[in-house]
Structures
1.
Amino acid sequence: MEKNFKIPFTFYLARTFSLLHSFLVDRTLVFALGSSDHICCRSAHFSLAAYFTGNSRKQRHIETENSVCSCKHDVDRNCSVFIDLRTSRTFRNSIMIIKKTGYHGLYFPELGVSLDGYHPEADYAFVSHAHADHMPRNRNTKAYATSATLDLMERRGFRGEKNVLKFHEQFESDQFRATLYPAGHILGSAMIYLETEQGTLLYTGDYKTPPSPATEGFDAPEQVDLLITEATFGLPIYRWEPLEKLKKDIQDFAVSSLDDGYTPIFLGYNLGKAQEIMHMLAPLNLPLMIHGAGFKLCDVYENHGIHLGNYSTYVREECEGKILVTPSSALSKGFASNVSKTRVAYCSGWASNESRRTQLTADKLIPLSDHLDFFELIRFCRELSPKKVYVTHTPNPDVVQHYLEKEGIDSSFMNFEYEAED
Ligand SMILES: [Zn+2]
Ligand SMILES: [Zn+2]
């Protein structure tokens, strides 16, 4: 159990007061301090403390969905300390009410809409893409997404209702009109555009412009009132090289390694990055093996018109001398450890940080990201001339907000648990 969190006392009081205030205002926050002898209550305290200090990592102590904490007590009934702060945060602005739901989702009570999450009262759950931190898990979810996203979600265990929307096709209800715009992040990824009587909103999900070549491209509306944007690479040290250059680096690494008698291994996660690397290598038509978890997603790409080349699933005994693609986590678990001469390329936006080289002992760092870089992010915000921007999924909200302010754009931080995905 962790004990050493340091919080300035006045800050603690101020935040406590504001939390109590929000409890009194919309009765969504319940906490009564006491009964801290329960493990779960302690972890709830830590979560609360983590919330105060802004250290979202520590929120992992409590795994709440429907208010059940990590030790499986019903927080509401048995612990009386804490109801998930993340499900009860409300963002108010002059245009529409936005609430957080679950880990990463949003709920719009006036519209009956959820984005990238489950909410019991949502009639429409729009899903931007099939990455784990965006995909709702609940069986009762009425999901609306592109056909590629729904196919990928199904492969990853989604069992709710599936409703296909085409890009640029308008979907209307009494309260809103929704349109999906291609987000350029992974296959099927979409930005969700909502037009309402109160105003318009664009939710980016994860996005990339210029788009990844293993996607349907990128397109956006011309102007929006509210913009909710991810800012994964929210520092001006992140400026990506042109995709053609990165593609050449990837091909050169594969060819030169094989020429020198080495087996090239590309590190990239299973959905998106792996297929993007394969798509870039496809013109070489060299035999390639991909980790099994990524392999089972590849035919969805092929079915949706993204060619991935001459590939098969990873077989340990047969992998020597082939191009290999795997998430880095598999490497430490013995992936290709039977091959004596390997060269490893780490493909990620984070690869632009030299420090990663020592952490990963990769032979080559290729800064291929499936998120947009910092400068594209600021440019995109400027072009949409929104009345308000919510910045989310970022380790650096202050920096992004500072640059937006210089552009004369009003912004707030929407604090979701941040994961260093790429
Ligand atoms: Zn993603
Ligand atoms: Zn994400």
Note: The chain has a mean pLDDT of 82.
2.
Amino acid sequence: MYEQYWGLKAPPFQNVPDPNFFFLSARHREGLARLLYAVKHNKGAALLVGDVGCGKTTLSRALILQLAEEKYDVGLITNPALPGNDFLEEIDLQLGIHPSNNSKAAILRALNDRLLANVREGKETVLIVDEAHSIRDPDVFEELRMLLNFQLNDRFLLTLILMAQPEINEIIGRIKQLEQRIAMDRSAGYLPMLVVGTAGTVGVGAVDPLRDIAAVCRRQEVWFHVDGAYGAPAAALPRISDDLLALSEADSLALDPHKWLYSPLEAGCTLVKNPAHLEDAFSFHPEYYNFKVSEEEPALNYYELGMQNSRGFRALKVWLALRMVGKAGFVRMIRDDISLSRAMFDAVRRQPALEPFAQNLSIATFRYLPQDLRGKGEAAAEYVNDLNRELLNRLQTGGEAFISNAVVDGTYLLRACIVNFRTKLADVKSLPELVVRIGSQVDSELRPASLHA
Ligand SMILES: Cc1ncc(COP(=O)(O)O)c(C=O)c1O
């Protein structure tokens, strides 16, 4: 009646992605051509991004119309906001595959069988995921990535097409490598249980992005341990980086008072946020111990909190130092060490024969680098490593100063880590000069003729 009244051949379009009313603008034509190219040339995956209302869904239907049924086996997922396994089940469902059960292994095996059967019949399998920006679970993105591993030697077994709003770029960008590794492990059937970050690396004193790592661990329900053996005490300073402050988010923390809490060797410890975990893991009650369990006076038995049973009183020296100087004293000493290290780095910068590398916390790294050897290729780089190695030996045995070394990406560096409250400004200022003096001496003895100008 409607058609008769208005003299129409067919009812007008409704608010559904009806490809009969698809107007091929230049951009839609290009989008469709690109998607067809990805499918017909077996490119593995394609992503079409467009704003809401721009016709992506209609375009996906138009694409399906172009894929003849006898040559293409097409699955269309319109609601991809499903958790990992449900998402995989949905793929099977949309391709009309019936796995023997709903375990992940069965779902994937059935999918693999279908992909191979399609290849045998000369058919291509295409999976279109509409509204892909609504996928929030990084595990699902990982599942999608893994689907591309369905391959023969020379070709993908599946073409995956994602249609999404522009926010997908940001969502994918947010999946950090760490989160990706965890998701990969999960989809490989492993159970990731621990991430270790470092607050002050051994070599250059770098601090990991602990705040971000903590957030990933929380999201992924993985234990977060921080190696703060050296750097953790700096978190007590009033103005310190947010990443060090994020130590408070760790489930456990390794801290060596014999490093930056000035204790004599050895006093290493692990701190945990919830000591009940330690008791759950280590507590045992041998019959040759007498236990008086009393609610009023609960006993703290340290042997129940770790592997060691009979233990020495290492904590005494840490406690004594804390009693002597207090937290304020430690904060002052640590702050002084950091400023001394910065002063040393500045002095290194003023020496043209030294190359500054990094300054973090109280560690400065640099090397002796004769100016005529800069940027001189591999043989020179190898020689500069040898030169610094020998320089350090002479410095250490010479008795005027004691520093150590670090190796970063094959570059041998001199490393001054200041954790001694007796170190003075005059000491740190004199070191670069001393290094240059010994360096030029070693250079004049060791340099091979081929590296002379
Ligand atoms: C960050 C960090 N973790 C662990 C260690 C190992 O410490 P130790 O040799 O005292 O057990 C070090 C030593 O330098 C370190 O700097």
Note: The chain has three domains: 14-187, 194-305, 330-451.
